[in-house]
Every structure is written in structure tokens, then in C-alpha cells.
């Protein structure tokens, strides 16, 4: 397998964004400290036109998707993590003539609850991370015919969050996701470099910080680039 190129990146939130990360009374709170590696890879691919349109949602298969994408990402770690105060949200499913009984029974709890609270990451939160694969800024520069130093991506629930990506200092340590390594057949007990230091969520299990060059060597063992 070929070791991929690595592009250190600074991500800055331009609008509030949220995920249903942590359960809180009557709602959910976003994990402010990290942006997940897989969500960033999908968001970058969407911004760069690398996602194939489909009339129907494909069967969930992260490994299939990540092997097809031009890029993988590290986790992105916040320099100044913080959350906005909780706000109420309404999921309006009844505008098209009301609910069936099945839907009515489901809308009292979980992701279909019609009234709930969220806590969002505010604008201005800065994250450090890296992109493995072709330099997306160089690719965008070739397409645009000018020097592109910023890529705007959409992420978060309903892609409502807008984030700016810019090239960053190559010396900033980054974290990899042991859960993503597991998708490619690498287990933490088999690779000491993938030992979990931060268990943020079931699918966000992060290594200790490492230099970007070391991270790209590890990622290069996961799949072909």
C-alpha cells in the first residue's frame, strides 16, 4: 500500500452546528471537543464533488464508502471547545395531513421526538486536523485556475453547519480514530499506535496525539490511495 500525502488543516465553524452526540434531559448536546474523522471525510468529498448522487440511500457500509473516497481524515480537535446555551427545536412531521398511528407512537421519544432541546457548537471554534490523500487545496486551485486557500464544507445534522478549511501548521499533532481503524481490520491490541486515549463515543475512540507524518504512515496501512 502507498503512504498517502498528508495536508494539515485548520477548521473553523462559521455557523452553529450540532450532532445528537450526548443525551441530556429532553434533548442532546454536541461533543464540542472533536469533529469526527468520517463526517469530515464525507463533508470534504461533498464539497469537492466526489460523492455520487443516488435516488435512494445505499445500505450503510462505512468501509465501502471510505475505500471509495479520495480522502480519509484524522479526527479534528478543538482549540477552544464550547457550546451555546440549549435551544428548543421542533421536528415538524405533521404538516402533510397528520400522523399515522405508527408515527404517532414513535414521536414521543428519540430522534423522531417532535419537541426537544439541542446544544450547538458556536461560530468561531477552531479545530486542528489533517486530510490524507491528494491535497484538496491544490486540486481546487487547478480547477479554479487560481490559488485556493479555503474550502467551505457543510456538516452536522441536516448539513446545517458551515465550516471553513484552510491549510495549517504541519507540526500540530493529530489524533486517529481507532474505530475507523477497526473498520479496515486493524485492532488497537494489534497496533500499539492505535491504543485508545480518549473514548468520546462508541464510534469516536481516539489515539494519543501524534505527528502528521506518523499518522499518514499508519493510515497508509489501512487502504490503497
UniProtKB/TrEMBL annotation:
It comes from the Bacteria. This is Uncharacterized protein. It comes from Thioalkalivibrio paradoxus ARh 1.
Amino acid at each position: 500500500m502507498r503512504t498517502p500525502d498528508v495536508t494539515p488543516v485548520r477548521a473553523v465553524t462559521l455557523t452553529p452546528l450540532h450532532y445528537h452526540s450526548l443525551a441530556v434531559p429532553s434533548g442532546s448536546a454536541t461533543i464540542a471537543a472533536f469533529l469526527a474523522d468520517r463526517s469530515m471525510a464525507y463533508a470534504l468529498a461533498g464539497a469537492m464533488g466526489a460523492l455520487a448522487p443516488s435516488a435512494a440511500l445505499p445500505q450503510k457500509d462505512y468501509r465501502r464508502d471510505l475505500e471509495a473516497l479520495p480522502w480519509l481524515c484524522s479526527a479534528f480537535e478543538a482549540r477552544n471547545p464550547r457550546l451555546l446555551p440549549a435551544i428548543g427545536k421542533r421536528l415538524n412531521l405533521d404538516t402533510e395531513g397528520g400522523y399515522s398511528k405508527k408515527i404517532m407512537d414513535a414521536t414521543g421519544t428519540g430522534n423522531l421526538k417532535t419537541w426537544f432541546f439541542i446544544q450547538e457548537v458556536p461560530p468561531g471554534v477552531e479545530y486542528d486536523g489533517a486530510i490524507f490523500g491528494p491535497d484538496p487545496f491544490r486540486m481546487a486551485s487547478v480547477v479554479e485556475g487560481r490559488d485556493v486557500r479555503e474550502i467551505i464544507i457543510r456538516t452536522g445534522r441536516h448539513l446545517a453547519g458551515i465550516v471553513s478549511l484552510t491549510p495549517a501548521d504541519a507540526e500540530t499533532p493529530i489524533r486517529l480514530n481507532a474505530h475507523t481503524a477497526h473498520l479496515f481490520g486493524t485492532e488497537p491490541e494489534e497496533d500499539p499506535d492505535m491504543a485508545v486515549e480518549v473514548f468520546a463515543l462508541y464510534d469516536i475512540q481516539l489515539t494519543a496525539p501524534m505527528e502528521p507524518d506518523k499518522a499518514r504512515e499508519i493510515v497508509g496501512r489501512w487502504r490503497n490511495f
